[in-house]
Structure formats: structure tokens, C-alpha cells
Amino acid sequence: MKASRYTLRTVAGIAVVSLAFSHVAAFAGEDPPAGTLRVCADPNNMPFSNNRGEGFENKIAAILAQDLGWTLVYTWRAQRRGFIRSTLNSGSCDVIIGTPALDMLQVTQPYYRSGYVFVSRASDNHRLRSFSAPELRALRVGVQLIGDDGFNTPPAHALGNLNITGNVVGFPVYGDYRSESPPSTIVQALCDHVIDVAAVWGPTAGYYAKQARVPLRVARIEGTDAFRPLVFEFAIGMGVRKDDDAMRARLESFIERRGEDIERILNAYGVPLFRDPEEAQHD
Q1: Nearest 10 degrees: CA dihedral of 105, 267, 64, 200?
Q2: Which residues form the domain of 277?
Q3: Fewer CB under 10 Å: which end of the chain, C or N?
Q4: Beta-ladder partners of 114
Q5: CA-closest candidate to residue 100, choices 256, 233, 203, 279
Q6: Phi and psi based region of residue 223 (left: phi greater than 0; alpha: psi -120 to 50; beta: remaining)
Q7: pLDDT tens string 156-197
């Protein structure tokens, strides 16, 4: 298992993997007008972003543009394979609002940290916290799958390592991109009793759990050290091109000054916010 490469490809909706379609800003490939904030984003990837500006990354981008006094424009492209190369690194846009640390770009200090969670129906009263819970061998467990190239989410690998496979149901992260909000299907399956518990990337889980027609319980997955080098929690910052120190400095200043505003947006969308383990040790 190529875990180290895999773990860098699992976040931001959840991963930056294969390409779907593009709708690029009109001045792509040209010098942008002064005072323009050009954001690279997915037009159909709630709760992160969509082309109606309804995602939490859209909201953060809006207050960033307001803070800078700049005009906000988007380069739209599905966050799949080739996303960074064909948007940020092609020069058609300048900022990715949410990304983990990646070799292809320069990332600011994190403005939130989240991770994988268990989601279950509140009426079932499951108290799942770790993969060692014996009931996972009997319940129908939903997991998110990245694709057919050998890379899957950390929960999928962890369950496989424990030989918990026969009762596991996979849900592609990307799903049918022609449908609204493809990542929502795993939470919908939980509401429909197709599965009993789901291991889901936190921001996706929290957002759709808040909207679910039945009460759902969201719990942080703990006790994952045994599955290293798999990573289950990620610090998320804003990404710029490697040579764009000026933009990174602007974004760093914004994150420091408007951190409370950013956190309010994340809380409104139900994003599970985890503390950095190193910071917690110094409390």
C-alpha cells in the first residue's frame, strides 16, 4: 500500500484526483485586472463549494475578497486528477481556499483541522469511537472510496487491515458528477437504512448530518495510531503557487485577523473542528 502518497490525496473534497470538466474565468491565461482575487474551485462539491456560492469555502473566499478590497472571480473545475496543474499552476487562478500540505503548491498556516468521523443514526444508539469496536464486524459499514487506482480513504484501508470487508459498502467520493452534491450519497444511504454506520470525511459528514431527515450522531474516530502511516486527520490551509510569496503573506494575515469569522462559518456548516495534538500537549 502506497500510504504516504495516498494520504496527501484524500482531502479537499476529499482528494484532488481525476478531471471532469472546466469553466475557466474569461481572462484565464492573461494578466488579471489589478485588485482581482482569482479562486480555483469546484462548481459541484458541497459543502466546500459550488457555482452558486453556497459552500463554506465560497463564504470564506467572499470575506477574503472583502477584506482585501478586491473583486472575487472563480476558475471552476472539478477537484479531480489534474486540478492543481490545470488551474493554480497553469496561472488561470491564484488561490485554493482549502487544501492540505501538498508538494505541488505552497500552503498557508492551517485555519482548521478536521478528520474522519463515524456517522450513525441517533436512534440506534451506537457509541462507535474506534475501529476496534466489535460491533463493526456485524453492522453494515459505509466507507468512501477514491477510485480504481489503488488509493482509498484511510477508513477503507483500516477496515481491510482488520479483515472487516464482507459487511462493508463502498461509496465513490465523486459519485455521479451530473447529480447535485455527489459526496452526499453515503449519508443518504445511512438515512435510508442501506447502511448502519459510515466512516466519512468530517466536513462532509457534519454538513449532511445537519440536513438529514433523521437525527444522526457524528463522532470523531479515535485510536488510529495502530494504522500508521495512514493519516486520519488533516490541517487545512490555503494554497498558492510555490513562488507566490506575496499572496501567501496576504492570506496568512487574513487568517490571523479574521480567524473568528472563519470559525463561525465552519461551525455554521457543521464542520467538526479538531485541535492540533501538539497544541493540546502544551495546554
Answers
A1: 30
A2: 3-111+234-281
A3: C
A4: 234
A5: 233
A6: left
A7: 999 999 999 999 999 988 766 777 878 899 999 999 999 999
